[in-house]
Amino acid sequence: MSVEADELWRSFLASRSDDFDLDDERAGVAAASAEHPRRPGVAETSRMIAGLEVVVARPERPRSDLVVVWVHGGAFTVMRASSYAATAGHLAGELGCEVLVPDYPLAPEVRFPAALDELDDCYRAVLDESDDAEVVLLGDSAGAALVVGLTMRLRDRGEPLPFLSVLVCPWVDLTLTNRSLRDNAELDAVLGAAPLAFHVDAYLGADVAPDDPEASPFHGDLGDLGSFVIQAAEYDVLVDDAIRFTRRARSAGTDVELEIAAEMPHSYQFFTGVIPEADMALTRLAATIEERLGRSGGTGAGQVAPMRIAPDDRR
Question: Which of 79, 97, 268, 284 suits 198 as a labelling partner, its CA being 20 to 30 A distant?
Answer without folding.
Answer: 268
